[in-house]
Every structure is written in C-alpha cells, then in structure tokens.
TrEMBL record:
Keywords: Calcium, Membrane, Signal, Transmembrane, Transmembrane helix
Pfam families: TSP_3
GO molecular function, one term: calcium ion binding
Source organism, top-level taxon: Bacteria
Region (Disordered): 1-123
PANTHER family on file: THROMBOSPONDIN (PTHR10199), THROMBOSPONDIN, ISOFORM A (PTHR10199:SF100)
Listed transmembrane segments: 127-144
Protein name per the record: Thrombospondin
Keyword Nucleotidyltransferase: no
Amino acid sequence: NESVDTDSDDIGNNADTDDDGDGVEDSADAFPLDPNESVDTDNDGIGNNADTDDDNDGVLDSDDAFPLDSSESTDTDSDGIGNNADTDDDGDGVEDSADAFPLDSSRSSNLSTTGNSTSSDNSGGGGSMYILLFLLFSIALVKLKTRNTFKIN
C-alpha cells in the first residue's frame, strides 16, 4: 500500500518508473520528481530548462552556438563546426593558420610560411608606397642640400 503518487497516475512512486509523469523514466531523469526538468547537462543541480548556461562554459545559452558543449561556444561562419574545431572559422576558403583575418570573411590574406603577406583580397599593400615616398623625399633633400653647398654669392 503506497501513499505517495507524485504524478497522480494511480501508480504509487515505489512501483512507478516515471514518478513525475514527464515521459522520462526515473533512472534517466536528473529530476525524477519535477515534471518540468529531466536533464542537467553540467551537473550543477539546475535543470537545463531553468539553467541559463547549460554547459557551464561561462557563455549564456542565448549567446552560445553550442549550449550543450562546454568546449565550443562560437561558430563564426555558421557551418555547424565550432571555431575551436574549425580550420576555417570565417568560411572564406583560407585556413585560419594562413589567414591574416581568420574571423572576417570579407577580408583575407594568405600568409607565407614566414608570416609575410603574399596575396591579399581586400587589403592594400601600402608599405611599398611609403618606402618609395621616403626615398624620393630623401633624394630631393640631398639635392637641395648639395645645391645650397655649392651656391656662389
């Protein structure tokens, strides 16, 4: 004779395999007496329905691309592979290890093994221009100085 029947299904809790009547057997239910909760991914004592960070990675579920995977939270290119495992985070076809802008698909630059930019999609190579301007300015300054040195009064 049982006196407790949590889900009021006329089967006492001792004989009932699903005490709260949520459809999850008590043996697999993290909260066997709570019909609103059955899973606690991060084992923090707060069921996933009430928990704002199910995987306890420090990123709120609402901001987490992988709310049940504590090793991932971001998927820049929305390809279903988190940035930690993705070799091309922005999906621009250039692997992150060779991409000067691994999180920006509108800008990428293939890097050589020395780390210098060898090709560029949208970034200018202004370094050569500055060197050229410096050399022209230096030549003009030297010419001006030598002209003033030999000037006869």
